[in-house]
Inverse folding.
């Protein structure tokens, strides 16, 4: 059985992380523009997500060449979700991102020394200092760094990070030691 614990940590992103937080909304808007053109072209049915992403992936790579390609995945998914729910009665009303944030793919994030280490550009990492607010959050970070928990898709702003932590729980054991440690901190 999988267990997921989602925690909101206060954070302090470095300059490179601030850059992706500022650029990610532009990536989402770029994908929204592609979706608008599809809808304005008279398409009568919504396209599947994979079809939508694949139509424009190579163009995205040229437009945002300096960024890790996992951002194509997460930004296109945000845009697809936002526009899909408006299809087919979608009317262009200036659907625009109103906040600076980034959605970080699980494959490009890890915990290192109390920070999120995020691949932002090829062979370049940003670091986001996390500020646990209690013993439980500190323990979860320590365990994530040791690989006890896998990190899911992170939502990052300039002030906080929403971090889902995932773990397989042993149902055949009477007590899962990791979950017991977490329960004792409550």
């Amino acid at each position: 059985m999988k267990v997921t614990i989602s925690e909101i940590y206060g954070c302090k992103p470095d300059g490179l992380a601030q850059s992706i937080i500022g650029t990610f909304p532009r990536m989402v808007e770029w994908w929204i523009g592609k979706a608008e053109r599809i809808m304005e072209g008279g398409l009568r049915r919504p396209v599947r997500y994979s079809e939508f992403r694949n139509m424009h992936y190579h163009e995205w790579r040229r437009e945002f060449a300096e960024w890790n390609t996992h951002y194509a995945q997460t930004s296109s998914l945000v845009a697809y979700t936002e526009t899909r729910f408006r299809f087919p009665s979608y009317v262009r009303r200036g659907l625009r991102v109103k906040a600076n944030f980034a959605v970080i793919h699980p494959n490009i994030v890890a915990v290192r020394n109390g920070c999120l280490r995020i691949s932002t550009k090829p062979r370049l990492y940003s670091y986001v200092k996390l500020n646990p607010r209690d013993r439980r959050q500190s323990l979860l970070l320590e365990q994530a760094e040791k690989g006890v928990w896998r990190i899911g898709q992170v939502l990052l702003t300039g002030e906080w990070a929403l971090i889902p932590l995932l773990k397989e729980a042993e149902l055949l054991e009477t007590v899962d030691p990791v979950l017991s440690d977490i329960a004792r901190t409550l």
Observations:
- Helices lie at 15-40, 49-63, 70-84, 135-145, 177-184.
- The chain has a mean pLDDT of 87.
